[in-house]
Amino acid sequence: MNKILVIDDEAWLREMISLALGQQGFEVIEAGNSEEGLERASADSPDLIICDVNMDKVGAGYQTLEKLREDKQTAAIPFILMTGLADAKGMRHGMELGADDYLPKPFKIEELYAAVDARLRKVKTVREDAERKLSQLRNQITLMMPHEMRTPLNGIISNAELLAFSSDSLQPAEIAEMGREISTSGRRLERLIENFLIYAQLEIVANDPDSIAALREATTLKPGEIARATAINDADHCGRLPNLVIEAVDVPVSIAEDYFKKIVTELVQNALKFSEPGSPVTIRLTATAGSLELSVSDQGRGFSTEHIRRIDAYVQFERKMQDQEGLGLGLNIAKKLVELHGGSLGIESQVGLGSTVTVKLPVARGA
Question: How many whole angstroms separate alpha carbon 3 and alpha carbon 26?
Answer without folding.
Answer: 6
